[in-house]
Amino acid sequence: MLLSWNSRVMPTQLDLSSLPTGTYIVLFTHAGQTESYTIIKN
User: Does Signal count among this protein's keywords (predicted)?
Assistant: First the structure.
């Protein structure tokens, strides 16, 4: 699953408790910079 958002919230502050288990690719855009994170929830 691909999650993408433009926010000031860092990915470490995301609430993933409502999401099913799996691997997520998160695109985080801040101040014109885009970073990608892979989050594995099991």
Answer: yes
